[in-house]
């Protein structure tokens, strides 16, 4: 019995879509777990490529919606497997830093969750833990932290509201 070529392509397409959705779902649930750990309650990470906010932001939350964290899709892709060399170290470090930063904005009942400087300080101080939670070895998390520190200092220099004077930033 000869199977029409159309059906072969259709079955292959469905198969690859299911594999992609499964991989994405597992990666997204890992991002949700990390965000929920830092927020200390369940948080859903959304990586919407249609979101217009990502033209000017890496990530954002609404303080009135503590259950959702929005991260730029190009950063979410780097979070899917932090050990994969597909994305550069700098992008992977930024993706982890943004995930942790936005997660601290969702922490309840922390009264300083709206303070960019305090949130950024917490994010950089807990960067290695977040990287390890996403699958990086302790040594690789330390290597990524060096790149995260560059992003942290760049952000603090460009936007003073992200700079906490007394923040004990870890050494590379």
Keywords:
172 residues, 3-stranded mixed beta sheet, 3 strands, globular, 6 helices
Class derived from helix and strand content: mainly alpha
C-alpha termini separation: 64 Å
Ranges where pLDDT stays below 50 over 5 or more residues in a row are 10-25
Average pLDDT number:
88
SSE series? HEEEHHHHH
> What gyration radius follows from the Cα positions, in whole Å?
18 Å
**What is the number of independent domains?**
1
- The fraction of residues in strands falls at 5-15%
Helix content: 55-70%
What coarse outline follows from CA principal-axis ratios?
globular
Helical segment tally?
Answer: 6
- How many beta-strand segments? 3
Tell me about the biggest sheet?
3 strands, mixed
Description of the structure:
The structure is a single chain. This protein is mainly alpha-helical. It has one domain. It has six helices and three strands, in the order αβββααααα. It has helices at residues 5-39, 73-79, 89-105, 116-125, 127-133, 138-158, and strands at residues 44-46, 59-62, 65-71. The protein has a three-stranded mixed sheet with strand order 1-3-2. It is globular and about 75 Å long. The model is unreliable at 10-25 (pLDDT under 50).
